[in-house]
Amino acid sequence: MSAKGIVDLAGKRGLLVGIANEHSLAWGCAQHCHAAGAQLAVTWLNDKARAFVEPLAAQVEASIALPLDVEREGELEAVFAAIGERWGRLDFLLHSIAFAPKADLQGRVVDCSRDGFARAMDVSCHSLLRMARLAEPLMRDGGSIVTLSYLGAEEVIANYGLMGPVKAALEAAVRYLAAELGPSGIRVNAVSPGPVATRAASGIANFDALLADAAQRAPLRRLVDRDDVGTLCAFLFSDAARAVTGDTLLVDAGLHILN
């Protein structure tokens, strides 16, 4: 696995938010960005996650590694302050975090709690707006912001529940951010992978059945993996994608054309 020869990120500096372990989609992105020559900053959610993320940060020679829980006051601002002090600029940003309380995620959307809905929207969607606002002054020469979505934002996917409306809001936010930040040369896109076995996906009921169905029905007759996602993200961060913004790009072995 290497992004060399595909994209060139030499001299670029990027923040990747959402690495939890070696199975994370954000980790695939980190590997490809590192291989393409980028200098990276990474974060971990809490002390438990730190034990998994720090060794990965070392593998990609991350020069900044800090805790980040977007629900904890001041932590997001501290990360961007550290980037400003250490680098003075930021070229790209990956937003790869999402959360919904289990009871709200696994129940009917119509039954979700007010607090659960608000928390899911705050962590999964509004955090992108906060990151974009903090990234904007550091992207003085333009930049690229990418977030991760899922087909459940566009279609009803069994057991995806509350995250469907939340991801739909996230994709709408991408379009508005692209319009607002475009004059500053900042591109904003969403990547929508097919189902991938990650820790975050384990909270979705009957996820194994979703994986099996995707592998059987996708035109390419396979699942996608973190390398597929990482390759696309690295491309979107590169100058090769300089005219791509406001889009949701699907990487799902073609599964979406069948629904």
Explain this structure.
- It is a single chain.
- The chain has 259 residues and is of the alpha/beta class.
- Helix content is 41%, strand content 14%.
- It is built from 8 helices and 7 strands.
- The chain has helices spanning 25-35, 47-59, 75-86, 102-106, 114-135, 163-181, 207-217, 226-237; strands spanning 13-17, 39-44, 64-67, 92-95, 143-148, 186-193, 248-251.
- Strand 5 (143-148), helix 6 and strand 6 form a beta-alpha-beta unit.
Q: Low-confidence stretches at least 5 residues in length (pLDDT < 50)?
A: none
The biggest beta sheet reads: 7 strands, parallel
What is the helical fraction, as a range of percent? 40-55%
Total helical elements? 8
What proportion strand? 5-15%
Report the order of strands and helices: EHEHEHEHHEHEHHE
Cα(first) to Cα(last) distance is 31 Å
List keywords for this structure.
alpha/beta, 41% helix, globular, single chain, 7 strands
Secondary structure elements and their pairing?
Elements: E1 13-17, H1 25-35, E2 39-44, H2 47-59, E3 64-67, H3 75-86, E4 92-95, H4 102-106, H5 114-135, E5 143-148, H6 163-181, E6 186-193, H7 207-217, H8 226-237, E7 248-251
Parallel strand pairs: 1-2, 1-4, 2-3, 4-5, 5-6, 6-7
